[in-house]
Specification:
alpha+beta, about 30% helix, single chain, globular, 5-stranded mixed beta sheet, 6-stranded mixed beta sheet
């Protein structure tokens, strides 16, 4: 008896097939080649139908080899939106979480995101679906015939089960913005203040509900990828600190009760409770930027081709330095922050003898960790005292032993990983198992 989980990432799409009986798992990852080029430097869009095609291919491939699949769970990139008509067809591209249109200046001189946040009282950063929609609605970019706004994961679920109306769970709904996390509902009064039509929002449902069937296999509600990665990584809910590094990065802990903490996002958790999340916009992307810099530098000053040079391997093989006093200090805010999108990274503490490639690599990795640790330090002491297990996920972390060491140094504890690859896809799989009536399954241990 197998269950399948799918993770629709920004740059790749992953799937797992898992059987709880033997705990056997198979994973597959393929590139997400659905990107749409744009002349607008702030626009980040993808083709939703291409994403759907890739997801179907992964599921169909698993179905050939595992004929007893009992459920399909979906997760993926949060915050982004697309528009669908009354037939449930996509009539726009997917505007991803990286889309920067809401950072453009509005008529008041504020950015669209800042104006939206000030008027409604909610923090709605650029990239959040309703900030994107607010910009589109003010600039006549909402397509004609629109019936609903939805996330890419809710769109895929809807299409897999051949329905026409998207439905979202609380974790994805909160990722759109203007959502009352404590009451688990959109702030309709706040939406009315800025002239956003609430009827365009998807209906809400619990994460473990089945929306229908794909080739006789139940397909469950999509959940946010941050929540899914937590589910697929930790074994102990209340004592774990979860750090995940992909293109962006997050530090997350579970809280049974609602909390409002400056600088920290409070997100609904599948099955009840909340996640307290510190989200950095530039995680693994910072290391990728440095790799590109080194590659461009070699190309600039050498007549030899850079083809065949494994820059990542070289960069992750330098000698780690615990002592930071004589290292360049790198602040990795290269894409700003949620609250200060115009802020930029910088490098300081440079001397005549420490400005070397090796030191810059170590300094940057420590900067990635330091940003997440600062989020963690913003949590109340009562929350931090209960956390003792540091759990990591994300390929940018798993494939970089130096970054792992930097996290261990920063948090002063050992870093462990889930025994399974593709944690977010596995977490979506666990959500499907929890929704199934065939198995008595708890999400994770409450200890």
């Amino acid at each position: 008896m197998y269950f399948v989980g799918i993770d629709i990432g920004t740059s790749s799409i992953s799937g797992v097939a898992y059987t709880a009986k033997s705990r056997k798992i198979e994973s597959v990852t393929v590139p997400n080649d659905a990107g749409i080029s744009s002349a607008k430097r702030w626009e980040r869009a993808q083709n939703p139908m291409r994403i759907l095609e890739i997801v179907r291919t992964i599921i169909n491939d698993f179905s050939v080899r595992y004929t007893t699949i009992q459920g399909i769970g979906i997760t993926g990139q949060m915050h982004g939106i697309l528009y669908v008509n009354r037939e449930g067809d996509a009539i726009s591209p997917l505007y991803t979480w990286q889309d920067g249109r809401a950072n453009l200046r509005y008529k008041t001189g504020m950015t669209y995101a800042a104006f939206l946040s000030e008027v409604t009282g909610h923090t709605v950063p650029t990239g959040f679906g309703l900030a994107t929609h607010f910009y589109n609605s003010r600039n006549d970019l909402v397509p004609g015939g629109v019936a609903k706004i939805c996330t890419i994961t809710d769109f895929v679920v809807m299409k897999l089960v051949d329905l026409k109306t998207p439905v979202t769970d609380y974790s994805n709904a909160a990722g759109l913005g203007l959502f009352d996390v404590e009451q688990l509902n959109f702030d309709h009064a706040g939406l009315a203040k800025v002239g956003v039509d609430s009827s365009l929002l998807p209906d809400l449902a619990e994460s473990t509900i089945s929306r229908g069937h794909y080739r006789s296999i139940p397909v469950y509600m999509a959940i946010g990828d941050n929540q899914a990665a937590f589910l697929g990584s930790v074994s102990h809910l209340n004592s774990s600190i979860h750090v995940t590094v992909g293109t962006s990065s997050q530090v997350s802990v579970f809280s049974a009760k609602y909390m409002k903490i400056p600088g920290i996002e409070t997100r609904p958790f599948p099955g009840g409770g909340y996640m307290l999340v510190g989200a950095a916009l530039c995680g693994g992307q910072a290391f990728a930027m440095l790799r590109t810099f080194f590659e461009d530098t070699v190309a600039k000053f050498s007549t030899s081709s850079t083809e065949g040079i494994d820059f990542y391997k070289i960069m992750t093989s330098v000698t780690y330095k615990d002592d930071s006093s004589d290292l360049p200090i790198v602040e990795t805010l290269f894409d700003g922050t949620r609250s200060a999108p115009d802020k930029r990274g910088h490098i300081e503490n440079i001397s005549t003898h420490n400005f070397t490639p090796d030191n810059l690599i170590i300094g940057l990795l420590k900067g990635i960790c330091r940003e997440l640790y600062q989020f963690y330090q913003a949590l109340p002491e009562e929350v931090r005292k209960a956390k003792s297990v540091l759990v990591g996920s994300g390929n940018a972390l798993k494939r970089n032993p130096l970054l792992c060491r930097a996290f261990e140094e920063q948090f002063n504890t050992a870093l462990i990983f889930s025994p399974y690859d593709e944690e977010a896809a596995f977490g979506a799989c666990l959500n499907a198992i929890a929704g199934s009536k065939n198995l008595d399954f708890e999400f994770i241990q409450l200890s």
